[in-house]
Write a structure and sequence with these properties.
The complex is a heterodimer. Chain A is built from no helices and 10 strands. Chain A is mainly beta. Helices cover 0% and strands 44% of the residues of chain B. In chain B, strands 1, 3, 4, 7, 8 and 9 form a 6-stranded mixed beta sheet that branches. In chain B, a hairpin with a 5-residue loop joins strand 7 and strand 8. Classes of the chains: A mainly beta, B mainly beta.
Chain lengths: 121, 110
């Protein structure tokens, strides 16, 4: 069974750093890309960026470029989303999703269960 | 790319059909067949229900169908059931090699 399992909820203060994870299983990790999607409280989905785990090539949406970093560790089939300095506006649930850019399967399936990040002083 | 435009809410009675629209531009919905739809129940992760405009993943009910005309895609749910009550999001690949989502539509089953 293909699964994406995300790390648990986090509570952080503004200015702190944070890395959350998305661990893949049930398929060849380097054959699919991973995307990250933000959902702020009570709001819709926003595409943040994506990474090709085979070479760690990542691209970002304009709203997120320079604010987050997406990385991958092939040895443990895990993709990360990292903030060096959190802001209160980063409070949201973050989802990872799988897609296959190589074959043109440009849809996200499956998704991780989500990671709630709360940033508050 | 601005968010795709969806109605904020739609409603229907059990057994009826509803359609949710998703309007973009020639740079996203109008330019590709990479339109997908996701269902999200409260507190849950999104679930893929339609991909590449009108394809259903294995296990998704055939009551769900998709279509596209120009820069507007549509999701139709026939034979509404109580379990269909959820938020629905469209998404499209774009000419910038990014993705864009719609603002979401809350479906209420009366």
């Amino acid at each position: 069974e293909v699964q994406l399992v995300q790390s648990g909820a986090e509570v952080k203060k503004p200015g702190e750093s944070l890395r959350i994870s998305c661990k893949s299983s049930g398929y060849s990790f380097t054959n699919y890309w991973i995307t990250w999607v933000r959902q702020m409280p009570g709001q819709g989905l926003e595409w943040m960026g994506r990474i090709d785990p085979s070479d760690s090539y990542a691209t970002y949406g304009p709203s997120f470029q320079g604010h987050v970093t997406i990385s991958a560790d092939k040895s443990i089939s895990t993709v990360y989303l990292y903030w060096s300095r959190l802001e209160a506006s980063d409070t949201a649930t973050y989802y990872c999703g799988r897609f296959n850019d190589y074959t043109g399967e440009r849809f996200f399936d499956p998704w991780g269960q989500g990671t709630l990040v709360t940033v508050s002083s | 790319h601005s968010a795709l435009t969806q109605p904020a809410s739609v409603s229907g009675s059990p057994g009826q059909s509803i359609t949710i629209s998703c309007t973009g531009t020639s740079s996203d919905v109008g330019g590709y067949y990479y339109v997908s739809w996701y269902q999200q129940h409260p507190g849950k992760a999104p679930k893929l229900i339609i991909y590449h405009v009108n394809n259903r993943p294995s296990g998704v009910s055939n009551r769900f169908s998709g279509s596209k005309s120009g820069s507007t895609a549509s999701l139709t749910i026939s034979g509404l059931q109580a379990e269909d009550e959820a938020d629905y999001y469209c998404s499209s690949y774009t000419t910038s090699s990014t993705w864009v989502f719609g603002g979401g539509t809350k479906l209420t089953v009366l």
